[in-house]
Design the sequence.
């Protein structure tokens, strides 16, 4: 390890420690422990170009242990990404800075994914590696490997303890994603102390069981050893690789290294002084980096340019030789594709007969897959039930990366992270699917979709007590409220074919917001009055004859037909009601106050909402004077034709509750 | 395998197939495939007594693949548990029957846990095995192993794909839970087809990596081989055991066995006929079981009695010899313990100074642990931050099963399942802990706590944007709404020491409802007017002078102090407001209409709620005429002293919003 390499590694340590100290908040343990690994990878192996962070064939690097964000920010600064200045590092964790506590996608140039919840980056990395293989199989031609890059992720013991990493890695092994390379920062320290208290498993053996090549770097500061490990990982073209790097948490800081206290608090001024001395750093001044170190990084960056130049040249030739592929490429990367191809009459067409919205959704998926070749997706081992299979598009597998039907296995959480990763890669739109009640499992990663602004689509079927015989463990109750409460998430519950088409249209045209569809298992009638107005989230489906209705019934999904039938019965008694469909509260809330007041006039207080799930949140529309027919308990196991009447989801009850007001 | 054994195994298959056929709904694949394993275990190895299903030292059996419920119901019927009749099997999946679609705890005698969400049973089994070791270490005396039993769980590929099983088994291996024995029903079939499409990992190698003994039964219908495997599992006193049983899904049904279609739909009348022929079953009549088979099961059950008789004798001697242990035993099993010991002045005492509710909660935990020796718990590697460590109580580990501090590792989902399992075992009360934002990870298993009526306690700290620098991935927004929407769950957000004590009192005295505490990272002042009235969920903390207040401000947790300060400022302007604290909406909703109307009179419509999380759900109290100061977006990374004012959580803003009404 020559001196300039040592200095360059230590610059990462110094900047990280100083930034965390200045912020009086942060996690120095990982940046100090992993500085060598990160430097060796970024300086000598990673295919990237700080001058063009969006280069489509760049290698991806995800810091799964997002709390070690200063490692990433130090790298981005030293490599000159997005002109991230020393001043930005000085603003670490401060209001409005480019250096928030955990790395944030779309916020800081060079950050490939928002991380923080442990294990998330591992799942997203698997998704990125899947996207790479799929895109490669679609686009590469003999002599033109236009998609050909690695995905690297770095995480620690916490990432390996979280179940999501087992889920994701088991699938990665099955799929033989040999261009996926994982660094395991093994420092044997967790927040509560030695990992021995909770984590004595043989991690490498587990990874071998998943089908990974495993490699160990005994000295996490030996650049040569690290470099050889990376080369060995690349050399295996059959298996993904897992590189265990034995590190010391907080390396370089004598009082802290190897201790749990190095993990999540500033080192302290004295300890930083001692660290700089220990590392032979030339100055005590905070954030000082010698000019020769900056010059060295600059030289590295200059050396990275030719690879992209060569790729650009190859890509230009490819485009000329295969103009149809160039066109397809542009189609894949066209953010406005859905608007262009999903708005014809066939897209919105339907048969006027009773059908389950899960079936109708299945039809929409098959219309969309023909219009949008870049759509890929699947279910957590439930596609025959969630109706998410794309006909004639093949199965994505180690033998057929061109397949568009993903088989995620019974792994809802990893599935969602993988969906995020596929979309983060670029070029593809993904959907994932499971039963609505199991959307609970997807929550931590769906939250990341929302935070990152990744418009992943969730197909959640079996959306109420309509599940019937499977009983309470399979009947969603509180799930609609859970999703409606989350920012930047569109939770749709369509009532029939037209609204299902609208939900899908909204999903595939969304640029920055994930969309979920809650769909029925049971058949529903087509409703008179449903329309593309559903894209406003809530709208009048059948209005009163009077300008001011006697009452308003609001419903979604399977209960909209009850509302419509109740209106008829009430009309016979001279009560003139308006029926409002509310397929997506989130989008309705985004409408103008005028529109909302038009649909739900302030002066009409006799309002009844009906939805066969928790009423929590409906008070926003029924207020203190209205009424709500919902579920305030868990469901039960019986045919749904028994459950709906028992729990009050009947025309008679809707009529009675309106009259009671 | 002699004839009566064969007949007895096939009786399970026939009853399962017939019940599912009659219900026109259900999952025959597992019951047919696993009938031999279940029979061998229950008939010849399991320590149990159908005549006393509550025998405290019985072995536990959890059907983790809960969709195979007919396997369990057939066993319970044949062994005579709770007098489960043939007629009950005929009512499989029907309204109000004892045989719902998935096994339900507290509903059917002999069901040890509600299962259905895959992997859940594995996590709960680990919890039960932990409870067994802890209770054994507390109670057993030389020659008196009063707690000494095995925990068995049976699950399939789905259970093994779910991340929760990796989390739970990694911990089980670390803890050397040698009395835990897992059956892996390896049939190589999943819903979407062969497991090869998503699950080619070496499962046994993974389990070895976790520290399990692994055993394979090549022929899942060879009772002798199964029996030997169970004996070998018991013989290992250092490691938990994992028995892979190679089975055929839907075994016995010629048209279905080995096929995905055997999994989740009735076999069909013709196929059942063919199955009965194939198995040499003496009658085609549905639900027919020969008398000799019933007689055989009766004989088995009679043979189970002496073991419990012997235990009862030993236990009586133990109680006589160690009267103090008998007293302690009764304390552990006293459901009313908390009411008796947690209501003294010291329990409610506090220092009148600003403090974070996480710290105050930590004090309460340490008061409770001295009063309730049966409390055990810990965090997902965050106890220094969540303040959940019980002083001087030691760490639960393979070397010290008497320790009361659990180290769950970074495994929130398994932690929750384990918490459920500990409580299902009986004798212990458990708490689990993580950051509030990561409560997302616990959701699927917390839902089971609520469905089962298991009063697990959740300590969720860092409960708002008050988290500050860690940023949006660590700042809960929608989590309060998510938990409030779930039935049978008490979500507390206390405002100060008194309310924190109330939240804990509510948690430990709860018999059938889990409780969560959302607690601050930052210091809060003690509020004048808080009291044990907090146990009503919502109450008047500072009232208006007028009988009818000009307005009502409602708040919880860290925002209650804003409400109280705003009241003072408004008073200066002659506006006389009432301040209502709402630490637990769920419990407030359980109060009488009179009480609720007293706190929030219908005629006072000028209401402002303030809570630094999503406003979703607050309309229940502010209605269409009120206002809500909440978070309708994700948070940001900055010191909380910057975030609170930016997002409007200031006295000035509360005052302004009240005035605006």
Sequence:
């Amino acid at each position: 390890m020559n001196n300039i390499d040592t200095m360059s590694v230590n610059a990462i340590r110094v900047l990280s420690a100083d930034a965390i100290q200045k912020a009086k908040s942060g996690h120095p343990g990982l940046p100090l422990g992993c500085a060598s690994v990160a430097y060796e990878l970024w300086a000598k192996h990673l295919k990237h170009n700080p001058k063009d962070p969006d280069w489509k064939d760049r290698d991806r690097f995800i810091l799964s242990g997002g709390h070690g964000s200063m490692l990433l920010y130090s790298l981005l600064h030293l490599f000159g990404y997005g002109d991230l200045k020393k001043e930005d590092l000085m603003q670490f964790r401060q209001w409005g800075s480019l250096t928030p506590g955990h790395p944030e996608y779309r916020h800081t140039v060079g950050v490939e994914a928002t991380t923080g919840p442990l294990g998330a980056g591992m799942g997203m990395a698997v998704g990125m590696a899947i996207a790479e293989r799929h895109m490669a199989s679609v686009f590469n031609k003999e002599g033109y490997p236009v998609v050909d890059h690695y995905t690297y992720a770095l995480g620690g013991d916490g990432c390996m303890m979280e179940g999501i990493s087992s889920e994701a890695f088991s699938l990665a092994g099955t799929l033989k994603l040999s261009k996926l390379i994982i660094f395991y920062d093994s420092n044997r320290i967790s927040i509560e102390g030695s990992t021995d208290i909770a984590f004595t498993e043989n991690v490498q053996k587990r990874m071998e069981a998943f089908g990974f090549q495993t490699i160990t770097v005994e000295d996490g500061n030996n650049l040569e050893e690290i470099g050889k490990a990376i080369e060995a990982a690349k050399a295996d073209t059959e298996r993904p690789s897992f590189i265990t790097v034995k590190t010391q948490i907080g390396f370089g800081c004598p009082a802290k290294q190897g201790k749990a206290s190095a993990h999540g608090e500033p080192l302290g001024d004295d300890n930083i002084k001692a660290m700089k001395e220990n590392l032979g750093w030339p100055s005590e001044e905070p954030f000082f980096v010698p000019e020769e170190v900056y010059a060295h990084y600059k030289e590295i960056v200059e050396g990275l340019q030719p690879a992209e130049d060569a790729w650009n040249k190859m890509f230009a030739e490819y485009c000329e030789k295969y103009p149809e592929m160039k066109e397809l490429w542009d189609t894949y990367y066209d953010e406005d594709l859905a608007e262009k191809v999903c708005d014809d009459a066939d897209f919105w067409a339907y048969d006027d007969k009773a059908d389950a919205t899960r079936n109708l959704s299945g039809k929409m998926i098959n219309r969309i897959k023909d219009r949008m070749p870049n759509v890929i997706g699947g279910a957590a081992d439930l596609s025959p039930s969630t109706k998410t299979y794309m006909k004639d598009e093949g199965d994505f597998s180690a033998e057929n990366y061109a397949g568009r039907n993903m088989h995620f296995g019974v792994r809802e959480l990893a599935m969602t992270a993988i969906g995020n990763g596929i979309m983060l890669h670029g070029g593809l739109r993904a959907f994932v699917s499971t039963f609505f009640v199991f959307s609970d499992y997807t929550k931590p990663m769906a939250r990341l979709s929302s935070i990152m602004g990744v418009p992943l689509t969730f197909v959640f079927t079996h959306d109420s007590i309509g599940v019937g015989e499977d009983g309470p463990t399979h009947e969603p109750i509180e799930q609609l409220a859970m999703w409606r409460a989350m920012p930047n998430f569109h939770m749709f519950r369509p009532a029939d074919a037209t609204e299902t088409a609208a939900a899908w249209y909204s999903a595939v045209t969304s640029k920055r917001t994930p969309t979920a569809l809650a769909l029925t298992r049971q058949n529903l009638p087509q409703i008179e009055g449903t329309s593309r107005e559903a894209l406003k989230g809530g709208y009048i489906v059948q209005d009163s004859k009077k300008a001011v209705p006697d009452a308003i019934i609001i419903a979604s999904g399977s209960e909209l037909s009850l509302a419509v039938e109740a209106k008829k019965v009430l009309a016979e008694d001279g009560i003139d009601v308006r029926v409002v469909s509310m397929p997506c509260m989130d989008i309705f809330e985004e409408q103008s106050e005028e529109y909302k007041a038009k649909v739900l006039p302030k002066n009409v207080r006799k309002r009844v909402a009906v939805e066969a799930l928790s009423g929590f949140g409906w008070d926003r529309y029924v207020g203190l004077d209205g009424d709500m027919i919902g579920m305030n308990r868990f469901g039960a196991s019986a045919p749904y034709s028994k459950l709906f009447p028992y729990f009050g989801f009947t025309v008679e009850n809707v009529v009675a509750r309106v009259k009671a007001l």
Notes: The longest helix of chain B spans residues 291-321. The CA atoms of residues 4 and 293 of chain B lie 7 Å apart.
